[in-house]
Amino acid sequence: MDSIKSVDKAKKQSIKVAIFDPLKRKTKPHRHHNYLEVVVLFKAKGTHYIDQIAYQVDRPIAFNIRKDQVHYWDLGPAPEGIVILIKDDFLTDCEDPVIKSLLQQLSPFPCLIPNEVEVLKSLCPIIIHAFQTTSNRHVREGLLKAFLAALHQYSNVAQSKSTGVNALCNQFLKLLWRKKVLGIKVVDYATRLNTTPQNLTQLCKKETGRSAAEIIAAEITSEAIRLLFYSENNIAEISHLLGFKDVSHFIKFFKRAKGMTPNQFRRNP
Q1: Element (H, E) at 218
Q2: What percent of the chain has pLDDT over 90?
Q3: What is the full DSSP assignment across 16-50?
Q4: 65, 39 Cβ separation under 8 angstroms
Q5: Which of the 8 DSSP states describes residue 4?
Q6: Which residues belong to any copy of the HTH araC/xylS-type domain (predicted)?
Q7: What is the location of CATH 2.60.120.280 in the chain?
Q8: CATH 1.10.10.60 residue window(s) in the chain
C-alpha cells in the first residue's frame, strides 16, 4: 500500500493561480496526481525537497513539480511567492501553442534561478487578480503566457540543451511522466510513438543531451526511490510496478544506478 499522501485540491479547476500560502511553509511529503505545479518564491528561506533532492531556498527561485513527484516544504516565516497549478485539461483546451511550448520547455527543470525578478513580481498581482475576477480565457491565457515567457527568459532556459522543442521528444517525455507502465525499453516507447528506437534516441540526444535509454533509466530510478522511501511495497512489488518482469533484473538495474541494492538503499539511504 502506498503511504504517500496525495493532494489534489485543484480537482474542479483546470488551472489555479494564487499567492503562496504562508501556512504551507512546512508540509509533509506529498504528491499531486493530476497536475503540474509551478512555484516562484520571491522572498523565503529554507529548503524544498523534490524526490529526496534538497534545494536550498535563499534567493528568488522557481520550482516545477511534475505530476507524481514527491515534494515537501521546510521554509521559515512569511514566504512570499506565487503558485500555478495546471491540469492536463487546461493544456487540452488551451488554444495558444506558445503556452504549451513554454510549459514543455520549463517543466523538465525542477529548479530555476531567475536572474531578474522585477518583471515577474510586477506580473504576480495582475495575473492573480485576473484569475480571481474574470473567466475570459483570452485575458487569462494572455497573462499566463506573459508570466511563463518572463520566467523562461530570465531563467536562461533558452540557452539550455533541455528545451524540449521537438514534438516527438515532448510526446516521449509526457508518456514517461504519466507513470503508467509502458515498458523499460526504448522500443516500447518508440512503438507507441510510431517511430524507431534509433530515431527516438537521436532526437532525445539532440534535444536533451541524453539518450532515450538514459532518460528512461533516470525516471525509473527516481520512481524506484520514491517507492522505496514512501511506500510499504516490498521489492518484488516495486519491481512489478516499475515494469520489470524479473525482480533480479530490477535489483541489478538499481544497484548499477545507485551502487547498492534496493533493500540496502531502503535501510540506509
Answers
A1: helix 212-230
A2: 47
A3: EEEE--GGGSB---EE-SSEEEEEEEEE--EEEEE
A4: yes
A5: P
A6: 170-268
A7: 13-159
A8: 167-267
- Tens digits of residue pLDDT in 3-17: 444 444 444 579 999
Contacts of residue 178, Cβ cutoff 8 Å, sequence gap at least 6? 67
Sign of CA dihedral 120, 122, 127, 129: positive
Block residue for cell numbers 511553509:
25
H or E element in which residue 11 lies: none
**Calpha distance 14→108 (Å, rounded):** 21
pLDDT at residue 239 in the model: 93
> Taking the mean position of all CA atoms in its chain, how far away is CA 200?
21
Tell me the average pLDDT across 136-150: 95
What confidence tens digit (pLDDT) does each residue in 178-215 have? Answer: 655 667 889 989 998 889 999 899 888 877 778 899 98
Q: Give residue 11's identity as a one-letter amino acid code.
A: K
Going by C-beta distance under 8 Å and a sequence separation of 6 or more, which residues neighbour residue 133?
none
d(CA 212, CA 220): 12
Q: The cell 475576477 sits on which residue?
A: 133
Amino acid identity of 154? Y
Q: Which CATH number fits domain 167-267: 1.10.8.10, 1.10.10.60, 3.40.800.20, 1.10.287.990?
A: 1.10.10.60
